[in-house]
Amino acid sequence: MAVEKAVAAPAASLATIHRFEKIVLSWDYLRLVRESTKKGAEVGTAAGLKSVKKTYKDVEEYIGVFEPLLFEEVKAQIVQGREEEDLTDWQKGAVASCAETDGFHRVSLAVLDEFREQVSENDILLLSKEKFQEGMTPSTYAFALVEQRGGRETLTLRTFLAGEVKHLDKAEPEHSQRLLRMLSVFKTTESFLWILKICSLSTIMREYVGLHSVASLPFKDLILSAAEKSDQGNLGDRAWNVPQPLMDYLQSNLNDSQLDAVQAGLSRRTFVLIQGPPGTGKTQTILGLLSAVLHSAPGRVQSKGGISAPKRGPELQIQDKYCHWIKASPWLSGANPRDLIMPIDGDDGFFPTGNELKPEIVNSNRKYRVHVLVCAPSNSALDEIVLRVLRTGIYDEYGHVYTPKIVRIGLKPHHSVQAVSMDYLVEQKLASVDRSSSGAGKQGSGGADRDRIRTSILDESAIVFSTLSFSGSSLFSKMNRAFDVVIIDEAAQAVEPSTLVPLAHGCRQVFLVGDPVQLPATVISSTAERFGYGTSLFKRFQKAGFPVQMLKIQYRMHPEISIFPSKEFYGGYLEDGESVKKTRSPWHIYRCFGPFFFFDIDGVESQPSGSGSWVNEEEVEFIALLYHKLASKFEDLKSSSQLAVISPYRHQVKLLRERFRATFGDQSDQIVDINTVDGFQGREKDIAIFSCVRANSGKGIGFVSDFRRMNVGITRARSSVLVVGSASTLMQDDHWKNLVKSAQDRKCYCKVTKPYGAFFNDANLDELKAEDPWKKKAKIVDELHSEMAVMENMAVDNVEGNAEGNEDYGMEGDGGGYDDD
C-alpha cells in the first residue's frame, strides 16, 4: 500500500493512519474555505479546542489537546494549498475502476502523463464533477489521496465516502449527500472528473503517527510530566566513561558551558536540553557531543583487555587518505563515492582536502559504539551539520580526528553533501555490484535489491542524518539496529508532534538543541497558533522548569552588538569570546556605520493589494543610499558578499531586491544578500541592515513585535547592525522600546529626515566620526572598576562601623547589588 511507503506504518499505527485519512478525506472543501475567513478565537471556541499545557496527567489528556489542534493545522494547509495553486489549472480525468476496501473506496483514474508526473504519494487532490468557477457552487466533489502512481497515464486514489466527520469525538461520520453523489460518479466507468492538486500531507501524517506513538515510548511519563524522575541516585553508575585522550581534547577545544552541555549528556539523563544563543558554537557543541557518545563506554562496563591506541604512521598524502575513506565505507565494494566529486571552489568540499586531518583506521569491532540519529526541521539546517562533520570530522577515543561512517537521508540534499546522500550511495553500490557480476551474468537492480542496500547502509552508519519529517518514512522501520541516541538540532523550531516523529523508533537518550528565543515553529493555522500549537517540546519543557544547559560565550558579534540581546533575551548571561576582537572594521570610524546604529525614519507603511504583507518605500530609498555610501567609502564592500539587508516582510524584501537591481545592476544579487528574517536563521554576515517597515500612529506593529524574530534580525552580523525604522511606531512594543532607548543611551541613534541624501554628505559624516569602540569599552570597564573599588571601600567602612555598634547598612530583602545597566 502506498501509504506504507511514505509513512512508517507498522500494524499498530495502521489504524491510526486510517483514522487520520477518514477524517481528512471526509471534509467538505467549501466549508473549510468558509471557516478560514472566521477569526481564530471564534473557530476555536466552536470546536472546543484546548490550549497546550506545560504538563499532562495521562496520554488521553495529551492526545486530547494536541489532536484537534493538529487537524486545525491540516485544514489551514489545505486552504493555503488551494490559494497557492492556480485554480484555473484543473486537469481532466476519467474513472477507470472503483473498489471498496478497509472502509475506503479505491479509485483508478486515467489522466495525462504530464499531470501524473506532477503528483506524489500522499498528495491530497480535489475531485469534482463540475469545474469550480466564479458565480457557481459545485455540489458533487470530494477529497482524494494519491495512493500510488500506477502505469502510464494512471493514478490510484483513496477516498472516503461514508459520511463527513465534523466532530472528532463522534465515532460515526455524519450523512452527506455530496459524498453519495461522488460515489455514484466513481461507480460509473469512464465518468469524467475535474482534478486539482492541493498539497502534500506526508509530513503532517507522520506527525499524527508520532503523536499517537507517545503511549508506547519508554519515556512517556517524562514527556507528559516534563520532569525527570526524582530518583536519580544511580546516574553515576549509568554515566558514560570518556577515554582520557578524548576528554583532554574536549576540555581544550570546548569552553566551559559547551563542556557542561556535553557532560550533561554523558550523565545518561534521558532528555538533555541545550540552548544555543546566536554565535555560541552550537554546531561545535554537537560535534563534541557526537565524539563523546560514539567513543565512550558505559560506566558499569569494565574493559577486559584495555584499549591500545593504533600506531600513528607518517603524515598521509591525499591519495593515501582516499584509501582510508574507502576502507571506512564497508557498504561500498567499489570506489568511495566521496572521491567521485571534488570541491570546485574550495568553499564547500565534502571532506578535508589538505593535511589538516590525520585519519586513522578506526576499529570497526568497537564494542560499545552507539547508533546515532541526528535530525533537524529543515534540509538546510540538517545539511549544515552534515557539512561540518565532513569538513572537520569528529574525534575518536584516542583524541584523533577522523571521518565517521554517515548517511544523509531524505529529499533535496545540498550539492556539497550529495556524496553521502542515501540515493547516491545506493547507486554507487548498485553500479559496483553490476560491474563485479558482469562476468557471471548480470543481476537485477530491482526494488528488493535497493531496499536491502538501504537497510545495510542504515545499519552500518555510525550517524544517520534526516529531517524530522523524513525520519517517519518506512525506510527506518526496516532497520535491524535501533538508534541509541537521537539529537535534534533547531528543536525550538519544530512543533511538538514533529519532534515526536524520530522518537517513535525508540531510543535511550534524546538531546534537544535549539534556542526558544529565536525563530519559532512555522504554524499556518492562526487558530492552532492561538491555542499554543506552535510551542515546541523544548519550550514546553523549559517553561515547566526542566533543566537547560545554556551556551554562554558568543564568538560572532562585536560587543556593541551583543550587549543588547544579551541583556534583553538572555538575562545578561552572554559573554564575548576573544575572537570578537576581529569584528573591528574600518567603517567603524563613523558611528552611523556601526557597530550598532538606529536610524529613526518616519516612513509610510502600505499594504499591497490582496496581500497580508507590508512595504515601506521610504525605508527602501534610505537603505539604497546607505549601502551606496558604505560601498563608495569602503571599496572592499563593493565586491564583498558579506552585507545583508533583512526585513520581516516578504513584500519589502521583494521591493528591496527590485530597487537594488535597478540601482546597482543585476550583479547586486551576488553582492548584497536580501532576505526575510526567517531566511536568515542560522546565518551570519559582516554587516546587516534591518528594515522594520512598520510606521503608523497606534495601529500596532504586527508580527514585528515577535521578539524572537527581532532577536534573529539583530544578531546576524559580526561587525555592524544598522536598524532602519520608525522609533515612535516601534516603541509601542516593550522590546523595541528598550532597543531604541539602548541606542539613544549609547549615542547610537539619529533622527533622519528627507532629503536622505543630505544625511550622507561628507560634512555630516565627519560630525558622526566615532570614538574608538575598543578604547570606549576599555574606558567603561575602567570606570566600572573604579566605582566598584569605591563601593568596596565603603563596604569595609560600613562593616567596621557595624562592629562598633553603628547603624546597620545590610542588604535589603531583594538581594541588593547593582542593576544590570
Automatic annotation (TrEMBL):
Record Pfam families: AAA_11, AAA_12
Gene3D superfamilies xref list: P-loop containing nucleotide triphosphate hydrolases (3.40.50.300)
Keyword Nucleotide-binding belongs to the record: yes
UniProt keyword annotations, A-Z: ATP-binding, Helicase, Hydrolase, Nucleotide-binding
Chain ranges of the DNA2/NAM7 helicase helicase domain: 253-433, 450-525
Chain residue ranges for the region called Disordered: 800-821
Molecular function GO terms recorded: helicase activity
Residue span(s) of domain DNA2/NAM7 helicase-like C-terminal: 533-727
Recorded superkingdom: Eukaryota
UniProt-listed PANTHER family: DNA2/NAM7 HELICASE FAMILY, HELICASE MAGATAMA 3-RELATED
The protein's name: Probable helicase MAGATAMA 3 isoform X2
